Amino acid sequence: MNDLTTTKKSAVTTKEVDERVYVTVYVENQLFGIPVEQVQDILVTEQIANIPLAPKEIAGAINLRGRIVTVVNVRNRLGLPELETDQHMCVTVEHGHELYSLMVDSIGAVINLAFNKIEQNPNTLDPRWQGISNGVVRLEKDLMIVLDVNSLLDFKNEAASTATVA
Question: Given 3.40.50.720, 1.10.10.10, 2.40.50.180, 1.10.630.10, which CATH number is that of 19-158?
Fold first, then answer.
């Protein structure tokens, strides 16, 4: 019986290692995948409070069940023009013990992907996008960029590298 228990546990562990679940979002018709374990919430925001002197990537802040959440405009973060709309779709994630809500154009689906489907970033991918990507996945109709949330939200390192170059 002990051997059977060990076999079942290793089978479960293998499946968990071989596959990952992603919440997909669209920004400028590009599909991005966010690992589901990083997603706290998906919401539509109507009122975003302005944060004076914030970088252009910061759209403002919202109150989510009593917590102040910084809203990051992913379009601005990726160097894309803003969409003019009053309602925004957001995916809330945790980074450095803080909550951030990633403002995107739309929410896609939740999909399961095997790790071996993730390929290296193509050389032609914009360098800014390469810096926030853990690879790409060819799907039936789309190319999904696997989003590295930590890199996307790492404003401190970006500011340090910009200061060094200047």
Answer: 2.40.50.180
Torsion angle, alpha carbons of 56, 29, 37, 46, to 10 = 50
Cα–Cα distance for residue pair 77/129, rounded to 1 Å: 9
Query: Domain residues of the chain, as ranges?
Result: 19-158
**How far is 78 from 64, CA to CA, in rounded Å?**
25
- Dihedral sign, Cα of residue 144, residue 148, residue 153, residue 157: negative
Nearest to 111 by CA among 140, 68, 154: 140
Q: Is 144 helix (H, G, I), strand (E, B) or coil?
A: strand
The bridge status of strand 67-73 relative to strand 30-35 is unpaired
Distances in whole angstroms, Cα of residue 96 to Cα of each of 100, 118, 138: 10, 26, 31
Paired strand residues for 10: none
Structure tokens that stand for 97 in this block: 């013990």
Q: Which two tokens stand for residue 119?
A: 């390929």
Per-residue pLDDT of 63-116, as tens digits, reads: 999 999 999 999 999 989 888 777 789 999 999 889 999 999 999 999 999 988
Q: Are strands 67-73 and 98-104 parallel, antiparallel or unpaired?
A: parallel
Distance CA 104, CA 25 (A): 7
